[in-house]
Amino acid sequence: MKSWLPIDSQSDFSIYNLPFGIFSTEKKSPRAGIAIGESIVDLDELAKLGAFDELNFDTSVLNQTVLNPFISLGKKITNGVRLSVQRMLCQEQSLLHQNNHCFTPQKDATMHLPVHIGDYTDFYASIDHATNVGKMFRDPANALLPNWKHIPVGYHGRASSIVLSGTPLKRPKGQVMPPEAEAPVFQASNRVDFELEMGMIIGKENGLGNTVSTEEASEYVFGYTLFNDWSARDIQKWEYVPLGPFLAKNFGSNMSAWIVTSEALAPFTLQGPEQIPAVLPYLEIEGKQNYDVNLDVYIEPKGGEKNLVSQSNFKYMYWSAQQMIAHHTVNGCNLRVGDMLASGTISGPDPKEFGSMLELAWAGKNPVKLSDGTERKFINDHDTVHIKGYAEKDGKRVGFGCVSCEILPAD
Ligand code: CA
User: Fold this and answer.
1) How many CB atoms sit inside 10 A of residue 285's CB?
2) Exposed e or buried b per residue across 305-339, where buried means at least 16 C-beta atoms within 10 angstroms of its C-beta
3) 71-81 burial code (b ≥16 CB/10 A, e <16)
4) Strand positions, DSSP E, 243-283
5) Count of H helices and E strands in the chain?
6) 165 near 195, Cβ under 8 Å?
7) Is 385:405 a contact under the CB 8 Å cutoff?
8) What's the gap in Å between 341 CA and the centre of ligand 1?
9) What is the phi/psi pair of residue 268, to 5°?
């Protein structure tokens, strides 16, 4: 497949990708777009030319501030639009080639949060991450808790503080219990950490009381983004007993601007790890459920250079998206369009593949050295953390762009 539009071979936004987002410019109100190379295809303008008439849907959904109404139309429409744009980008005589005003340079666009996220659930689905945390804080010989290989463990997070890439976040303040102190103190967190995650955007509702099987679950996934689920480890340690994460997690998470569809990721599936002991029947699934997506994390101190600190991969997930959805709905809990289901920190077996500072610096025992000679146990004020992700196979590259965030000092 080749486009008439010049696209760099290393671009995340190849002709095979075509992810969806919401953008605006000085002259254009927020609307739906598809990223291609260094440009954005303006789906609202294209719809006005009649490009999607054959799909027969209300194209006003493309002129909204979020993608939820568009996604709600189902994959037949959403992937129909994507394939239609793909065809037009390849055909010399297409409507798109003749209408330059349907393109906006990415550098001239402001990106917006692409979906209204009604609910956010965070899983804990990487076995290497869960094992590392267990080794650090519990019993190194029995690092995984007894439930871990039976349940895709998760908790309900907070959707209101999920912000777009590029939105800085303030170092949170809260209660921490210093070692050997008798009472907690109120202070700015000293242990602000990134969590390398992928976010799954739900594309179909199951309705309260209805369950979704692992076989049906793929229909419920619209696509994926990069996700940095910021954490304050010192606040977390004191507050999390007995009900789990709260203020250590909900001060902010960043997502990338473009939602890469599950259709675009289909060529990059691979077999996940063997699950022993066998899971309960409602979690059973066969075939290739994991994705081979390279994930890189960089720390950039203010005025300094980007330091690559982790190189992980989405393929390391123990629990697949289908199993997460089946588990989430097994009690009848209703998923809604735009909900975010995050993977949990994605670590690989090699120490270079750990997905958080907690693991990379092993709870502060092995500080990470940066190129400017400084060290990090956690994230400093004015450090910017960047996460990039891409899949590549047989000359096809499908990338996610970047999710970046600077940590600002506490008030
Ligand atoms: Ca998390």
Assistant:
1) 18
2) ebbebbebbbbbbbbbbbbbbbbbbeeebebbbbb
3) bbbbbebbbbb
4) 253-255, 260-261, 269-270
5) 9, 26
6) no
7) yes
8) 10
9) -110, 20
Rounded to whole angstroms, how far apart are CA atoms 89 and 78? Answer: 17
Count of residues making up the chain = 411
Q: For residue 23, give both structure tokens.
A: 């953008």
CA angle 190, 303, 10 (to 5 degrees): 105
Query: pLDDT (tens digit, 0 to 9) for every residue of the chain, 411 residues total?
Result: 999 999 999 999 999 999 999 999 999 999 999 999 999 999 999 999 999 999 999 999 999 999 999 999 999 999 999 999 999 999 999 999 999 999 999 999 999 999 999 999 999 999 999 999 999 988 899 999 999 999 999 999 999 999 999 999 999 999 999 989 999 999 999 999 999 999 999 999 999 999 999 999 999 999 999 999 999 999 999 999 999 999 999 999 999 999 999 999 999 999 999 999 999 999 999 999 999 999 999 999 999 999 999 999 999 999 999 999 999 999 999 999 999 999 999 999 999 999 999 999 999 999 999 999 999 999 999 999 999 999 999 999 999 999 999 999 999
Ligand 1 mean position, distance from CA 52 (Å): 39
What is the CA(121)–ligand 1 centre distance, in A?
9
H or E stretch covering 323: helix 321-329
Q: Which residues are catalytic?
A: 129
Does the global pTM surpass 0.90?
yes
- Rounded to the nearest angstrom, the distance between the alpha carbon of 41 and the centre of ligand 1 is 33
Handedness of CA 191, 123, 121, 73 (dihedral sign): positive
- How far does the centroid of ligand 1 lie from the alpha carbon of residue 342, in Å? 7
Rounded Cα distance, 409 and 329, in Å? 40
Distance from residue 155's CA to the centre of ligand 1 (Å): 9
Residues 6+ apart with CB under 8 A from 28: 42, 104
Q: How far is the CA of 232 from the centre of ligand 1 (A)?
A: 11
| Cβ neighbours for 371, distance < 8 A, ≥ 6 positions apart | 304, 305, 307
β pairing state of 169-170 and 396-408 = parallel
Tell which residue, 250, 242, 248, has the closest CA to residue 189: 248
